[in-house]
Design a protein that fits this description.
This protein is an alpha+beta fold. Helix content is 25%, strand content 18%.
């Protein structure tokens, strides 16, 4: 969650600089190229992990999170994550992540119940 807040704060600062409320670039200077999110600022891939490992991974990436699991029959090993929402690679931004009313990221996983 701390990363999400830092990302939002950095975005607000960048918007302010682009709108002329900060920055020291001379008038007419080209804007810097947009940056793409780095891997640590994207939703991790939880597939193939145990529920416990997925929780640890989400804790590292998000801090706080609301994870809900559903179980379904699968040819994958019992207890492993077979799908997730939001998908891996989704930017860790308030605009991209589903949030609870308290601002905590909602993550839904589907876990194999075995064959």
């Amino acid at each position: 969650m701390r990363r999400l807040l830092l990302l939002l704060a950095a975005t607000a600062l960048m918007i302010g600089a682009c709108n002329g409320s900060g920055g020291n670039a001379p008038a007419g200077s080209p804007a810097p190229p947009p940056t793409s999110p780095v891997a640590e600022d994207a939703m991790p891939d939880l597939t193939g992990m145990t529920v416990e490992a997925a929780g640890d991974t989400l804790s590292d990436a998000l801090g706080s999170y609301d994870m809900r699991a559903v179980y379904e029959t699968s040819d994958q090993p019992k207890g492993t994550v077979i799908s997730q929402t939001p998908p891996a690679g989704t930017p860790l931004t308030a605009e991209e992540l589903p949030l609870t009313p308290d601002g905590i990221a909602k993550v839904r996983i589907t876990v194999s119940d075995g064959p």
